[in-house]
Amino acid sequence: MKLLKKHIAVAASLLLCTLAQTSCSMIDDDLENCGKDYELNYELRLITNVQTEIETQLSTETESAVAEALRQHLQNIFTDYAHDVDLSFYDTGVNDIRQYHESPTMNANQRSYTIYLPAQKYMHLAAANLKDNSIVSLSGDEYCHSSNLKQKDAASDNILPSHTTGLFTARQPMEVVSNQDQTFNVKLYMANCAAALVLEPRNHQTKDIQVYTTGFATSFNVKDSTYVYGASSPLIKAETVTTPEIGHWSFCSVNFPSKDPSSRVVIETVSPFIAGEADEKIWEFQVLVTNDDNTVTKTVLGIRKPLRAGQLMIIKGFIDDDGAVRSYDNTVGVSVMLDWNEGEHHDVEL
To answer: What are 275-297's pLDDT values in tens digits?
Structure first.
């Protein structure tokens, strides 16, 4: 009886092996497409000017508290640390449909994953830090060509909060070869950026200041690493970082980049943020100052330099006697509307 059971066990084992080989043979006549485990190494590459911009623009003793507050405010945006990562592997044929998808927790700057994949050519797309970003989500990701980071639509007031995480993406063609040990190295680069406005209140009595930025992309195509701009741009609400108690008003928004002929994810490391001035404004700050007499002064600051992925740009100025904002940078265009009311709002055409 023991001998009979042994023969049955051996026969069952052989049958399972035969079925496994047959299932692979159904993919291809030979076993070239049989899957195996492959190692993928992921690394976040943060290329940014944050420290240089803060040290250059906020260099005086009276600005030191603002500089430190801005560093703290942006520490979870400009960081090469990923909490989560979304991994998709697409067929490279006509349909470019997703073949495999995984969303592991990363909690690191670098991490390796072992993933089982059938042998074939893939386009691999990755995106990091989406779970804690309520403003941007991954959309259209069942197909490679339509996968994009989409900013949510603005409400009727055309206002959106700032992005809440630094977003990173990667795209990499992969040819998985059967019966070979392969390791793939994937680097993720930042896809959003930030703008800050620092104002001296001087002697003007101000009850409140609201700051918005506008003129930026509304989504990002992951495969092509290109930004999409709508017919009009929503207002991104800049968060208050400091108030006159420490010497200055300061505000900061986190958003997608502005228009720029080379506005892609920045991966070069030699002066990636140096740019010439455009003939007209590319993006803008809108500043609403509520004066002591309850009137509102609206100032539009037009910026002619592009804001790129991974970049922080700081604009400095002061508030004059009418509640208007005046920039210290003479390349920044200034438009002022005294006694402004909310009915005078206009969308910004891109």
So the answer is: 878 889 999 999 999 999 999 99
